[in-house]
Amino acid sequence: MNSRQASPLGASVSASPKLALRIDFLKKVYGLFTASLVVSSLGAMCALYIGAPDVEEGTLRREMPPLVELFAQHPILSIGVVFGVMFGARAVRKIPGVNVLALFGMAAVLGVTAAPALYMAQAAAGLGGTLSSAPVRDTFILTVLTFGSLTLGVFLSREDLSFMASGLVMGAMVVLGAMLLNILLGSTLLGLAIASVSVLVFGGYVLYNTSRLLHSSEEDPVGGALDLYLNFINLFSSILQILSGRHV
């Protein structure tokens, strides 16, 4: 027998350790991703309930919770804080120990800054005329189902979707430009259109980043979790805007 002849069994055995390492890496990524969502939820709950108005003699005082009011009345501050913690978390993503703290810190802060949107969405639903009567709950369910379906599709197909990168960057730039324009115009219709396109763009990012984590040789679980977290949050925000929009 020719000693140089390849053995299928040998190839399978040699591939197994690599596959096992990749599975271990993905477990770390999705563990950190899930934990960051939990931390973000806790941050949002703290903002919504700490200092929230109490029921007094059958009457609900109308003041917003302090943190909700702060970021609702100062959107520029909110944007600055969001970009600050995002860039900070990315800057230290490869520093052991610090990167995990930065990921969870960013998740907590983004949960707090998202609280005004959650508050306003539920308030709008209370007035009636929104697409969903419980927009926050339904948004979470739809986001989990969408994210989970896209992720499962990538894992089952095992397709390399690296070709999507340039198109997604262009799409994200268009969305960002339209959002900046709508700050000046304040158009509800344009806002709904932007949110709809954003669902497609960030759904694409879920596909792309999941494929990248599956096929690449990178060993940065914190960075991978950070990318997936931001995809999930952007997808959540876009769907929330659609479901909490007034339709009467």
From TrEMBL:
Pfam families, per the entry: Bax1-I (PF01027)
PANTHER family documented for this protein: BAX INHIBITOR-RELATED, MODULATOR OF FTSH PROTEASE YCCA
Ranges that cross the membrane: 29-50, 70-88, 100-119, 139-156, 163-183, 189-208
Name recorded for this polypeptide: Integral membrane protein
One Gene Ontology CC term in the entry: plasma membrane
Domain of life: Bacteria
Membrane topology: Multi-pass membrane protein
Compartment annotation: Cell membrane
Keywords annotated in UniProt: Cell membrane, Membrane, Transmembrane, Transmembrane helix
Protein family membership: Belongs to the BI1 family.
Provenance organism: Sorangium cellulosum (strain So ce56) (Polyangium cellulosum (strain So ce56))
InterPro entries: Bax_inhibitor_1-related (IPR006214)
Record flagged with keyword Endoplasmic reticulum: no
Record's signal peptide: none
